[in-house]
Amino acid sequence: TQLLEQSPQFLSIQEGENLTVYCNSSSVFSSLQWYRQEPGEGPVLLVTVVTGGEVKKLKRLTFQFGDARKDSSLHITAAQPGDTGLYLCAGGEDGNKLVFGAGTILRVKS
Amino acid sequence: EPEVTQTPSHQVTQMGQEVILRCVPISNHLYFYWYRQILGQKVEFLVSFYNNEISEKSEIFDDQFSVERPDGSNFTLKIRSTKLEDSAMYFCASSDGQGWEEKLFFGSGTQLSVL
Description:
The complex is a heterodimer.
Chain A: E1 5-7, E2 10-14, E3 19-24, E4 31-37, E5 44-49, E6 55-58, E7 61-65, E8 71-76, E9 85-92, E10 98-100, E11 104-109
Parallel strand pairs in A: 2-11
Antiparallel strand pairs in A: 1-3, 3-8, 4-5, 4-9, 6-7, 7-8, 9-10, 9-11
Chain B: E1 5-7, E2 10-13, E3 19-24, E4 31-37, E5 43-50, E6 53-57, E7 65-68, E8 75-79, E9 88-95, E10 105-106, E11 110-114
Parallel strand pairs in B: 2-11
Antiparallel strand pairs in B: 1-3, 3-8, 4-5, 4-9, 5-6, 7-8, 9-10, 9-11
């Protein structure tokens, strides 16, 4: 069974600080996705990484896929209160069936 | 942006009763999914559906579960005889392809409470 472990589980920081969230597995995934989920809503896709070592940027968010395609990180620069939410990583062999991590709850205080 | 619509947003039922959760996927999408999230736990894959048949299902998706696309717009999940442990948020999702490059769109979920 493929598992994804996310760390930390909870993160509370001040506005303007930088942070990194990690997603690790003992299994290789052909792709890895990062989602953000607000309370009472479904997950919303932020990015998909496919190639080992790949780095993608989305404004202040930087996503990296490990060289061995077993791990990924999400780095947020100068966090803002609007970044508050649950961040989920999910891996899959294709788009058909995703394995989700437990998520990192991020709270950015103003 | 187009969205996946789920109804009802909340469903309360008695143990042993049948429930049907409804979803309207994005209109031009071809692949449909159900996931669930028990409170405090991970989002879990239940089933995927393409071309009017199940393409993959998880161990959770036992004989008590079924899916159907009764018309050109709706996609339903039926639980025949609900159990307490079926209480969860159920998410419907759709995509227009199956590869990694295809974006998966999730609905807002139906919170199912089995009493």
